[in-house]
Amino acid sequence: MYFWVTTKDFRRGTLQTRGKLMQKVKTRLEENGFNLPAEIRKLKFYEASKSFQVNTVMNAKQ
């Protein structure tokens, strides 16, 4: 996110504005059905020369 802050104490003003903005974005996303943080999966390719199949399952709220 990019934003402009006009303040005498730039560092403090920026941190406060950033925190408030991130909280509002997070709240709005959650109100509209987005869950944060998303599930995290790690894929480690120890032997890149071997092929393998990847199956995915997606849960969608309706």
How does this model look, in words?
The chain is mainly alpha-helical and 62 residues long. The chain has one domain. The chain is 35% helix and 0% strand. It is built from one helix and no strands. It has one helix spanning 10-31. The longest helix is centred in the N-terminal third of the chain and has 22 residues, at 10-31. The two termini are 29 Å apart.
Number of strands: 0
Write the H/E string, N to C: H
Number of DSSP helical runs:
1
Return the average pLDDT rounded to an integer.
78
| Beta-strand percent range | under 5%
Overall 3D form:
elongated
Sheet/helix structural class: mainly alpha
Spans where pLDDT lies below 50 across 5 or more residues: none
Q: Quickly count the domains.
A: 1
Q: Summarize the biggest pleated sheet.
A: none
- What is the share of helical residues? 25-40%
Rg, rounded, reads: 20 Å
End-to-end Cα distance: 29 Å
Task: Produce the secondary structure layout.
Elements: H1 10-31
Provide key terms for this protein.
62 residues, mainly alpha, 1 helix
Describe this structure in a few short sentences.
The protein has one helix spanning 10-31.
